[in-house]
Amino acid sequence: DSGVTQTPKHLITATGQRVTLRCSPRSGDLSVYWYQQSLDQGLQFLIQYYNGEERAKGNILERFSAQQFPDLHSELNLSSLELGDSALYFCASSVAGGTGVIFFGQGTRLTVV
Amino acid sequence: GIQVEQSPPDLILQEGANSTLRCNFSDSVNNLQWFHQNPWGQLINLFYIPSGTKQNGRLSATTVATERYSLLYISSSQTTDSGVYFCAAYQGGSEKLVFGKGTKLTVNP
Questions:
Q1: pLDDT, tens digit, for every residue of A26-63?
Q2: Which residues of B touch A58 (CB under 8 A)?
Q3: Nearest one of A71, A33, A27 to A49, comparing CA atoms
Q4: Nearest C-alpha of chain B: how many angstroms from A40?
């Protein structure tokens, strides 16, 4: 167990819908990262927060948004879902950004039908 | 931005064989990590190795930062070693952790 908690583990939803993925970082970690992994694809960086502030942004679609709350948990919101958004979404955390060991949650498997 | 390249993309071994996975990066990095993604999708930390050599059981890793590469050694492979191995590094001046495309390892009994 990495200590990073993601909910839900599985999610099936229809095209056009909106979903929220939740992540609780490891105790003491201030930095949260979100990654997307499509079938047989590598890990695509979406966005990173440190202590509530956005610090780095990848190729995150405009339909996607995220935030980190004062208690350090983070949410990734995906809207107007398309079939191509089906993927495994990972959250990860580290003590600081840009350095140190990063730990991954178990992921949320999103299926858009 | 930093480029992280892994080789080989696929590797098939018989149980008990040894293997070496390579990770090249295009720029100097302060941090390099190796992960194993098991067949159930879990990403497990193997090594945090900005430089030097570390060992953990049958696995060891070496990073030569000045030459911009890292190696992961797996000895006496077991079927449970199957999965995808990723290396990742922070992009310089950024907090973005960039992953290579991975090496898919299959260990047959």
A1: 999 999 999 999 986 789 999 999 999 999 899 899 99
A2: 96
A3: A33
A4: 10
